[in-house]
Amino acid sequence: FNFLRKFGSTVIHSIVIVLCLGLTYCNIYGAHNMSIANYNPFFKTFFLIIYYYLVINYLSAFLQAVFADPGRPPKNPEDNFTPRCQKCNLLKPVRTHHCSMCGKCCMKFDHHCPWVANCVGLKNYGYFLKFMGIGLVASTLSLVIIIVSIMMGLNCPECIPSIKHITRLITIVFTATSILCTVTMLVSHIPYVKYNQTTLESYDNDFEVRKAKRNGVNYEYPFDKGLKRNLEEIFGKKILLSWLVPFWVNKLDVDGMSYVHNKNTKL
């Protein structure tokens, strides 16, 4: 059963990755071949540079989120670290959780994401956020390009009219849906980034926030170090370059074995 589960998980993940890449291609085709290609030379060049830069940056973040180590605990630690996971026997430092999909523990585990076929944890959370953020910008630009081309009556001379309209309609629906889902996901992660918490940790923190509010006190998030330092824990010290440069590798100072935490909180 474990073999079938792992095999089924691999198949599903492969299908999802191919689907993401296929939909990305459809989005590019709809924006470029059916819209940008019909702009005047100046705007065509302008939009092509921006659009394909975003696409390359988006795909780089996607591939990094898929293939980067999410933060597996070391198998042979230098110090005598005693806590271990009862399921996978890997080290289990603070903020580490066992992923039932991967069958392994992940440091600063946020969730297992089917869209990147990987755990989202300490070492690839920044790539995951960049994947969503750049994808949102690229999808929005694509939608604007297509809608503007329709309003301006720009037609694709090589396209059959009926197929052209159907393709544009499908692209608009897909892109708008993608934007809505991405915005929802990104908004949900704002408090996680702001207070340096994971999705799992937010459940306990939300309970503690309500409890503190009833007692008339302010709740201090255990690992909140301020917005700038929280962002550096996700993207490294070169936050801007991490977002702007395709395939940029985030260099994190934290090793996942221990974290700076507020002294007034209980861990």
Automatic annotation (TrEMBL):
Is the keyword Transmembrane in the record?
Answer: yes
Write out the transmembrane intervals. Answer: 12-30, 42-67, 131-154, 166-187
Superkingdom of this entry's organism? Eukaryota
One GO cellular component term noted in the UniProt record for this chain: membrane
Q: Which residues form a coiled coil?
A: none
Q: How does it sit in the bilayer?
A: Multi-pass membrane protein
Q: Which reaction does it catalyse?
A: L-cysteinyl-[protein] + hexadecanoyl-CoA = S-hexadecanoyl-L-cysteinyl-[protein] + CoA
Localization recorded for this chain is: Membrane
Keyword Phosphoprotein on this protein? no
Under Enzyme Commission nomenclature, its number is: 2.3.1.225
| Keyword terms | Acyltransferase, Membrane, Transferase, Transmembrane, Transmembrane helix
Q: Which parts of the sequence belong to the Palmitoyltransferase DHHC domain?
A: 85-204
* InterPro entries found in the cross-reference section: Palmitoyltrfase_DHHC, PFA4/ZDH16/20/ERF2-like
List, in alphabetical order, the Gene Ontology terms for molecular function in this entry. protein-cysteine S-palmitoyltransferase activity
The record's principal subcellular location, in a coarse class, is membrane
Which top-level enzyme class is recorded in the Swiss-Prot or TrEMBL entry? Answer: transferase
Regarding protein family, the annotation reads: Belongs to the DHHC palmitoyltransferase family.
How does the entry describe the domains? The DHHC domain is required for palmitoyltransferase activity.
Name used for this protein in its record: Palmitoyltransferase
